[in-house]
Design goal:
Number of strands: 18
Shape: elongated
Strand content: 15-25%
Number of helices: 22
Structural class: alpha+beta
Distance between the termini: 91 Å
Low-confidence stretches: 230-235, 658-667
Radius of gyration: 37 Å
């Protein structure tokens, strides 16, 4: 029991513990078969003994045969992950309404800043997430504010983390891809005791007792609940780490919406009291503005309210009458201002978060002010509603990979342990047989024989053609299952295959990988949308201005904002609007191979040649030349140089062209 907790608070805490315990155990029971298989998938791609079953290893050791692997699985995973990293582009944020498009450019720049910072490890964690999901079938990505891994301790920064395998559980009834329809979502983690006591000072006694229960308070194997096998003893005993259960859950409540009838702007209030305070503020501001046009004047035995704009005066017998009239004007102005709004109540959900250790509640309260879970899944394949159908690229190729390893080990066994050559000796042989056995397999061996009949020599056994065919067959089967072909891997060596045929096979393989990248594209969109929400809540206009300062100058030099230079004060005012704008995220992929980049560069040249105003800075950026920044800076400073016809002809000739770019000389 936590320190200083009342009876009612303890009753609520006990209820939270029962809910968390039953929900987590239900999920762990339902995934009892899936979790060990996912762990096996991660080890399988490493290769070595992990690609052999225990009974097969025992059999090979008993026969003193080599335990070898020919790890095609890893090459498949490496290709898919490398292909994803090469084709991925930066996200683009688009304002949902008719707001200034400049705000979309600003938000895109802020997103790029968040994921490019070395302290956030954003790009690294995204690649780690994709590889983990590709191997095991499902991994989870977490983001949130931090004041630890940042130089800005005033506002903090976003940090990203790919969570360990099997460290996330959720309500079994969830059906949405993003799991936001789940009633709860749980994360298992480990924490230093000193930091835990700093975060939950009221629960110091619970954290002290947690050491004795850190190993067994979750009723399942620790290796399949988010703990790598090499950390099981390390975190529990030697360094006394404490296991924490973080539980996010939705709580139903009503919100009040204030809708401006003229502009359509909507303000949201989480409580009725906040809505009443807003109404009171609107009425007071409108009343004050209406009253400031009137001045109370007294003369002889009368008082008058004089309108400072029209000059009209209302006379009253006493000053109290004038003040009552002024109060009435304030109230009428306030009512008129409130008439501009329509107030609506809507039922919705609010995100709450609770933390537990040793099945004791540490804290419980509202989350960060959003209904979305800050933990986002990436699921590669799930072909049915059953959780056991979740799988990556590794699981379907396990059987052919194991069969491949058997044949590979058999071939090596025959080559290494088999006889290099053999001799049939007559029974009357009187020489040193042991010496002959030690020397006969050496290269360049020269010996003598006694008698008239030489010994019969047999050559070494050749590699079994059947074994080689099975090797090739297993590799082909693995490629077909994973939808990866030799052309995609750049392994086509047949001289008779045309480049067009190779390209067609590559494109066919990419179509087969479409499901993988469609799920990844949806995950990226969810991640970037969540990052936008955090940026809107965390970053003040001053920090946004600091981040986009250099990009703002580049955009102005390109003329993207027009010919008028926007003052910093105006930009800060625009930045203040960002928290109130809804953005749509655009996440796309493009071919980033050298030939594709060259084709894009040539197309931009052709567009410029037919009169389309393509800025030279964009043309430089699309090229693969070094020192782009210096070239763009020179363009901005001195402008483009006049074209040199001789240099253009030389460049065209080096590319096999006899005419300027964009000119067709064929008849």
């Amino acid at each position: 029991m936590a320190d200083n907790r009342t009876t009612d608070e303890q009753h609520v805490a006990d209820q939270r513990v029962r809910e968390a315990r039953s929900g987590l155990n239900a999920y762990l029971d339902a995934t009892a078969d899936l979790r060990p298989v996912m762990m096996e998938d991660e080890k399988f791609v490493v290769g070595g003994k992990h690609q052999w079953r225990e009974e097969d290893i025992t059999k090979l050791k008993g026969q003193q045969r080599p335990i070898q692997t020919y790890n095609i699985t890893k090459s498949i995973v490496d290709f898919v992950c490398g292909y994803q990293g090469e084709r991925e582009t930066d996200p683009i944020a688009l304002p949902r309404g008719s707001e200034d498009a400049q705000l979309g450019l600003i938000m895109s720049a802020l997103l790029k800043f968040c994921f490019d910072r070395s302290s956030s490890l954003g790009k690294h964690e995204l690649r780690k997430l994709f590889r983990g999901g590709t191997v095991s079938g499902q991994r989870f990505f977490e983001m949130g504010p931090s004041y630890d891994f940042t130089d800005d301790i005033m506002n903090g920064d976003l940090v990203f983390n790919t969570l360990p395998l099997n460290s996330v559980a959720h309500e079994l009834g969830a059906r949405r891809y993003d799991l936001n329809d789940a009633a709860w979502l749980t994360k298992l983690m480990w924490m230093d005791p000193a930091k835990a006591k700093e975060m939950w000072p009221r629960s110091a006694n619970v954290l002290t007792m947690a050491r004795a229960r850190s190993r067994d308070w979750i009723e399942h194997e620790s290796e399949t609940t988010g703990t790598p096998s090499h950390l099981t003893d390390y975190v529990d005993e030697e360094h006394n780490r404490i296991r924490i259960l973080q539980r996010w859950y939705h709580k139903r409540h009503k919100v009040t919406l204030a809708i401006n009838k003229q502009t359509g702007e909507i303000k949201r209030f989480e409580t009725g009291q906040a809505a009443q305070e807003f109404q009171r503020h609107v009425a007071e501001v409108a009343g004050t503005q209406a009253a400031q046009f009137y001045q109370l004047e007294e003369a002889d035995s009368q008082s008058a309210l004089v309108n400072q704009v029209t000059g009209r005066a209302h006379t009253f017998v006493t000053p109290d009458g004038a003040m009552q009239q002024l109060d009435m004007l304030r109230k009428e102005a306030g009512r008129a201002a409130l008439e501009m709004f329509r107030f609506v109540q809507r039922p919705t959900t609010q995100l709450h978060v609770a933390h537990f250790t040793g099945w004791e509640l540490l804290d419980d309260g509202p989350g960060y002010g959003d209904w979305r879970y800050p933990i986002i899944p990436f699921t590669l394949f799930q072909d049915s509603e059953e959780l056991d159908s979740i799988q990556g690229l590794v699981r379907p190729v396990k059987d052919p990979q194991r069969e491949l390893n058997w044949h590979y080990a058999t071939i090596l066994d025959g080559l290494v342990r088999g006889p290099k050559s053999s001799l049939w000796l007559p029974q009357t042989f009187q020489g040193d047989l042991a010496k002959l056995q030690s020397q006969v397999s050496r290269h360049g061996f020269i010996g003598q024989f006694a008698g008239q009949q030489p010994p019969v020599q047999l050559g070494p056994a050749a590699i079994s053609r059947e074994e080689l065919e099975m090797l090739q067959f297993c590799i082909e089967i693995m490629m077909r299952i994973a939808n990866v072909n030799a052309e995609m891997l750049g392994q086509t060596t047949q001289k008779t295959v045309s480049g067009r045929a190779i390209g067609a096979r590559q494109q066919g393989g990419l179509v087969a990988l479409g499901t993988v990248f469609s799920n990844w594209q949806e995950t990226l969109r969810l991640i970037f949308e969540m990052a936008v929400r955090f940026i809107q809540k965390m970053y003040p206009p001053e920090k946004m201005m600091q981040i986009i300062g250099q990009r703002q100058k580049v955009a102005q030099s390109l003329g993207m904002y027009g010919s008028v230079v926007i003052p910093d004060e105006v930009i800060v005012q625009k930045l203040a609007q960002i928290p109130n704008i809804d953005y749509d995220m655009v996440v796309s992929f493009q071919d980033a191979s050298p030939s594709a980049r060259q084709a894009a560069f040539v197309q931009l040249q052709q567009m410029r040649g037919v009169g389309i105003p393509v800025p030279l800075q964009i043309l430089v950026d699309a090229s693969d030349v070094p020192h782009k920044e210096e070239i763009q800076a020179t363009l901005a400073a001195v402008g483009p140089m006049p074209p040199d016809p001789n240099a253009a002809k030389a460049a065209s000739a080096s590319q096999g062209q006899t005419a300027p770019d964009g000119v067709n000389t064929s008849q």
